[in-house]
């Protein structure tokens, strides 16, 4: 590849690059050959990087004013909202930023599902992504506890109690997590510490995620292996940089709409009531981005099995590269998978909806059916489809459907030999 | 070549073993520091004056950061709790074992599902109802319906005198 031959033009640049090849890295990133048919669903990687940096920067600023103590946390958040210069803006960006982060990550994940980006040789990228997603959920949960409102307190109580479902050691683990016999000040201080730590862990994993991506290169909407660099690729800069930049601007419009016009619509009014260990709010719901998993938890009538089902629903994604037996990556050439894909999207949206509703009657029934289908999709539909589905012909290159030829001579020869048969 | 244990193999094994013990000795304090500290443990018991509680009333007191329900039950509630057959219960416990003095039910007001505080005088069994995930408890605080696995817990307590209960 081109970056191996790179030498900086200036003498100083060469001197430095021989000792620490940062300029080689920069050159690799700008020249990085990217499939030229990437659509806007591919811009969410960049958008997610923006979200992470936004959360880290606004979080650092909030930590300068926030006080992690059970008696003062709620007051200090109100102090940020009312007294600190632009505190309201910074906190609203941080709170809505979490939602925007999840919105982007869900689009990013479902893009992978549609175009088969998790398949060989990109399994490691995918699994690192799942770990990042788990850490995001942990960070979001821990952060939600910090304002010490009623939802903070009872959300923390419910989620930490999930561990009490573990036989024998469960109660001990919960006491250890709390640092007491209930969620209290020791819990708050350690949650603050971990909430501060996790974004930097995510940052490190993002570096690995991108590094692992740059080994095989990007997948693309038609999901074929492409020759790099070739007629099928464009350099990352300026082509993808500009496209990502434009998509990011569109995304920031949505972000700004929430921050400036409906900053509390994604939150819960009960969290503006200070935590009270004696009164549970009438209706506890997690933030919207956790609702599908919450629905799965509640749809199982047994405590331990409910927790196992909820965790499995997330961890099953890590096994996806091996559960999907189809050799064809992109849903574009998989007429049946395409339909099941949209059923799964609908299923997850339904789970999210019933997760916000009371767990009784018809809602509970719907939640149970949707939970069963969720697992059916991954454990039965995907493995079977790979063997049963008749896929449509995959082009040999990105340019082939338009120009008729292929820059990949080896692939053309292979195709011609198929014709002879 | 014949394979036999050499001095060097012994040294490796011994080094690993000492290293593992050393690592454990360093890690344990880092883990144990998160357990309840001395100041939390010091608040482990509390005394409550119940002279103002009339039959049919519940008071809620805070003990170890958790609510404790102290309910002075009516004769109907006691009768209802005693009339339940043990085989109908998910977590079979006799009412006599839960309330030594049948008039007073003292229990942790914490749902055994995921730790919410159940609401008094609600649900299908005239006892408690947890709003979080819909667990129904009877007048003895026993789980009757819903996801909670066990009855609400009875803490250690005793009557110090006729009007004072010591919890913990």
Notable characteristics:
heterodimer, A: 421 residues, mainly alpha, Cytochrome Bc1 Complex, Chain C, two-stranded antiparallel sheet, 2 strands, B: 168 residues, alpha+beta, four-stranded antiparallel sheet, three-stranded antiparallel sheet, 10 strands
Number of strands of chain A: 2
Helix content of chain B: 25-40%
Under CATH, the topology of the largest domain in chain A can be stated as: Cytochrome Bc1 Complex, Chain C
Biggest sheet layout of chain A = 2 strands, antiparallel
Q: Mean pLDDT of chain B, as a whole number?
A: 89
Strand order of the largest sheet of chain A: 1-2
Give the overall shape of chain A.
Answer: globular
Largest interface summary = A-B, 37 and 27 residues
Cα-based radius of gyration of chain A, to the nearest Å: 24 Å
Number of helices of chain B: 4
CATH class of the largest domain in chain A: Mainly Alpha
Indicate the multimeric state. Answer: heterodimer
Domain module count of chain A: 2
Q: Report the C-alpha radius of gyration of chain B, rounded.
A: 25 Å
Order of helices and strands of chain A: HHEHHHHHHHEHHHHHHHH
- SSE string of chain B, helix = H, strand = E? HHEEEHHEEEEEEE
Residues in helices of chain A, as a percent range: 55-70%
What is the structural class of chain A?
A: mainly alpha
